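[step 3/7] fold_predict: job queued, chain A
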Amino acid sequence: MALEPRERDLPRIRRALTFYKVSSIITGVLLLGLCAEMIIKYGFNVVLEVGGASGGFGLVHEDAVTGFNLFTALLVAHGWFYVVYLFADFHLWSLMRWPFQRFLLIALGGIIPLLSFFLEARIGREVSDYLAKRQAASHTLEDSH
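[step 4/7] structure written:
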């Protein structure tokens, strides 16, 4: 038997959904950037640096980096945002009282390219529909009394 979210958690679910959607998009964009970075780095043996010998942005061989390595910064940023994404996933998952497998599926969105965008749309639609259904049911109960 599936558990239903608690009535008192419904307002918190809306905020948790917004937080999840924002973190999902940011994590997805950073993951796509990371994929592009890996293709450039391992395909062409270059990295993107700022403030090196060229003074601005430049692609240089990975052994010749003298400035700030933007690829490393992208890697670190994705790592931290993935932690935020996992927190948003956990928060929404716990409020919705979904099975643990659902948490794991959503967590994969931050490590499989493009999946976070599909999950964000699907989860967002599903949770919004659920909240609308609950709100309509509560109005129907109020009208009958």
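[step 5/7] annotate
The CA atoms of residues 53 and 62 lie 13 Å apart.
Residues 10-44 form the longest helix (35 residues).
exit 0
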